[in-house]
Design brief:
The chain has one domain. It has three helices and six strands, in the order αββββαβαβ. The radius of gyration is 13 Å and the shape is globular. The strands form two sheets. The protein has a four-stranded mixed β-sheet with strand order 2-1-5-6. Strands 3-4 form a two-stranded antiparallel sheet. By secondary structure, it is an alpha+beta fold. The chain has helices at 10-26, 56-66, 86-94; strands at residues 30-36, 41-45, 47-49, 52-54, 72-79, 99-103.
Amino acid sequence: MRVTADDLDPEDAKLVTLARSAMARGRTAAGAAVRDGIGRTYAAAGVELPSLRLSALQAAVAAAVSSGADRLEAVAVVGHDTRLAPEDSAVLGDLAVTTVVLAAPDGSLHH
């Protein structure tokens, strides 16, 4: 059985939808969305400039933290390769993330 974002809690499924949209808008290999402790959501695609490189997750976390979030409830990362880099895992630890959803561009969930 194929597990998709539709099988998630509605709030977590929303994060997958936002991450997919960020990926498409940015025409990048990955997109991410995060939900902070009071329910606000932030989405971003990866940034690849000569002088700045951020993963999609790092960019979404930066948007949340710069808006005042001090913890995150959940994150979703969408892409063809959604293995988290050590730096991304460290960021999740910094903000005490309890839910991490990894999905393919078609919305199917990675295990």
